[in-house]
Amino acid sequence: STLRAPHGCHAQYMANMGSNASLAMAVIINGNDEESSSMRQLMKLWGLVVCHHTSPRCIPFPLRYACEFLMQAFGLQLNMELQLAAQLKEKHIMRTQTLLCDMLLRDAPTGIITQSPSIVDLVKCDGAALYYQGKYCTLGVTPTEGQIKDIVEWLLAYHGDSTGLTTDSLADAGYPGAASLGDAVCGMAAAYITSKDFLFWFRSHTAKEIKWGGAKHHPEDKDDGHRMHPRSSFKAFLEVVKSRSVPWENAEMDAIHSLQLILRESFRDAEADNSKAMVNARIRDLGLQGMDELSSVAREMVRLIETATAPIFAVDSSGLINGWNAKIAELTGLSVEEAMGKSLVHDLVYKEIADVVDKLLTHALRGEEDKNVEIKLRTFGSQQQKKAVFVVVNACSSRDYTNNIVGVCFVGQDITGQKVVMDKFIHIQGDYKAIVHSPNPLIPPIFASDENTSCSEWNTAMEKLTGWARGDTIGKMLVGEIFGSCCRLKGPDALTKFMIVMHSAIGGQDTDKFPFSFFDKNGKFVQALLTASKRVNMDGRIIGAFCFLQIASPELQQTLEIQRQQEKKCFARMKELAYVCHEMKNPLSGIRFTNMLLESTDLSDDQRQFLETNGSCEKQILKIIKDIDLERIEDGCLELDTTEFLLGNVINAVVSQVMIMLRERDLQLIHEIPEEIKTMSLFGDQVRLQQVLAEFLLDIVQHAPSPKGWVEIQIKPSLKQISDGIEVVHLQFRMVCPGEGLPPELVQDMFHANRWITQEGLGLSMCRKILKLMGGEVQYIRESERSYFLIFIEFPNSNQREKNVK
């Protein structure tokens, strides 16, 4: 705000310095992404830049705007520096973890305290301690042995169920002896190694981290109790942070947790062997020097690989794999057993980086450990679809007990996701430039704006259309400066309408084919149609507008009019179809009611069969009416109604639908189907099966030679045993007619999903897709003297299903 009264304390600062004017500018940086609950990144205040002047000053808006921009640029630069510092800190922690792990493999656990580097180098602290088997090892500022035993008893009593405790104030955490520790120990991070062994890090009072700058305190100076003065404000801050240390960061907690896991595994092995030192001593006493060397190297490789959470692998002096942890196995799809003994250079990395890896190995075997080297690994087995795994590795020379280099260990970080995204971005960016800035006349004039309607894109077609080069327009305001000054519009109304279109697009409301006219650089009047749509970033936030121009030629206007007429005609047909489907439901309801009345009367067996066939056909019509949205079938979203039914009922309904056409064309129907097939009970969608079979049979009847021709239906069932003793019935339907049968173009319509010419072709195509959704398939076979549909489908055996349920 430009009108804000300063705090009384700040006014006192200014009076002390002889300042009459001040300008405060905030330095904003990115906050912690993990704490952000919204799509927008959390921002936080890092600090202030305050300018003072000895005389009253009024800063004009342009200068304040420039200062704001300067602070934004400084904030971006500062944020990059902070990110770089965080990355360097993570690398330092990873390096220290590796060294500590190496130390644990060779010496007693107390070596992480007594030797350098120690656990103090892992995270920033004022002191650290190891409480191991009742012994207390310290480093730096720590509590006494009696105090640490009291802390251990408190942890076991109140935090025994957790794996550790982290706090920046022991007093706030509820530790009763916090007052006795004073300001020397305020913050603590404790990690449980076993139920009796602990690791501790300690931090002192945070006030000693504050560097106070200002006038020295004079004993005779007294603060006014009613006003906050600089000295009293600092005292108030000290009261707030009293008995509190610097908070523990997430990266430090991750490092502590990783070391905790390493120590747990080490202590577990130590307990099993009754101490590593004792075992090594016994081995040396026995004089088994060769065995000592072999077990030392083996334990080093195995523990380093098993305890690491990052991808880690190791090679011997010949470049052959002798260590391969679970993470790298997961990334590459190559198991430990398969990886052992393979050549890293010749078998596991791509040829284009083989020289880089070979050089990396050569340096490491000489003791020169290269850092942050990107390698490209092959994938195997289930991970082959990834094509490649990109890992950034640090090389660490592996040494034996005589300090000779015997191999190389690689500690890596998987960057495959980042690499794939970056490659896609580069490809998309290249394609975007190639398309948008192509001189091809098919590319329309394109321009874009940011959130403030400043021009951010101006392609080659726009340069040709307006006469203004890209360099003359980028960064200028589209409303008023480019269109209005450079390219004149017809009156202020046109400028206002253009401004509304741009701001609507930036607000998320797209505009299509808006009439837009202007004068180019040479004064030529240009008429076009403007399409404006929003631009969004990866987070979905609107960052501007994207605009296309279409030159409104007579041919284009005529094409648009034809398109509108076709859309109108299509909409009219859709209304007619919707009307027909709606009105058909009423008489179908009457037919259903009539069938219900007939079922309650005395009917013969034949009459009851005719009634069932009639009901099946009525259900089929209702299903087809509900399928007016063919996209559900195209997308595979059709719902199937699974019920128990008799195969004979389906056959009767299918045959009834072709009988009239058979008589009209004087064709004979051959369908000698045994009674055991007709009485077969299945479990599935009866109506859909009936619809599919009826469509295929009807097309066979339509194209069978007549008169005196014939059509044959054959059904071959077979039982198939699947898992858990469940049986399914495999059905094969064959619908045969003599001669050539269906025309070739009709068969093409059936098997090509996106093209059909006739109504019969559309029906065959939809029924084929329905059959596929039911788990079946269809073939059309043309032989020398006959043609036929061959349909395969499986249904659960209803009788077997009832037995399983029982």
UniProtKB/TrEMBL annotation:
Residues 579-799 form the Histidine kinase domain. Residues 297-368, 431-483 form the PAS domain. Signal peptide: none annotated. One of its GO terms (molecular function) is phosphorelay sensor kinase activity. It comes from the Eukaryota. GO terms for biological process: detection of visible light; protein-bilin linkage; regulation of DNA-templated transcription. Pfam families: GAF, HATPase_c, HisKA, PAS, PHY. Gene3D superfamilies: 1.10.287.130, 3.30.450.270, 3.30.450.40, Histidine kinase-like ATPase, C-terminal domain, PAS domain. InterPro entries: GAF, GAF-like_dom_sf, HATPase_C_sf, HATPase_dom, His_kinase_dom, HisK_dim/P_dom, HisK_dim/P_sf, PAS. SUPFAM superfamilies: ATPase domain of HSP90 chaperone/DNA topoisomerase II/histidine kinase, GAF domain-like, Homodimeric domain of signal transducing histidine kinase, PYP-like sensor domain (PAS domain). Keywords: Chromophore, Photoreceptor protein, Receptor, Repeat, Sensory transduction, Transcription, Transcription regulation. Residues 1-72 form the Phytochrome chromophore attachment site domain. Homodimer. PANTHER family: OS08G0260000 PROTEIN, PHYTOCHROME 1. Belongs to the phytochrome family. Regulatory photoreceptor which exists in two forms that are reversibly interconvertible by light: the Pr form that absorbs maximally in the red region of the spectrum and the Pfr form that absorbs maximally in the far-red region. Photoconversion of Pr to Pfr induces an array of morphogenic responses, whereas reconversion of Pfr to Pr cancels the induction of those responses. Pfr controls the expression of a number of nuclear genes including those encoding the small subunit of ribulose-bisphosphate carboxylase, chlorophyll A/B binding protein, protochlorophyllide reductase, rRNA, etc. This is Phytochrome. It comes from Illicium floridanum (Florida anise tree). The gene is PHYB.
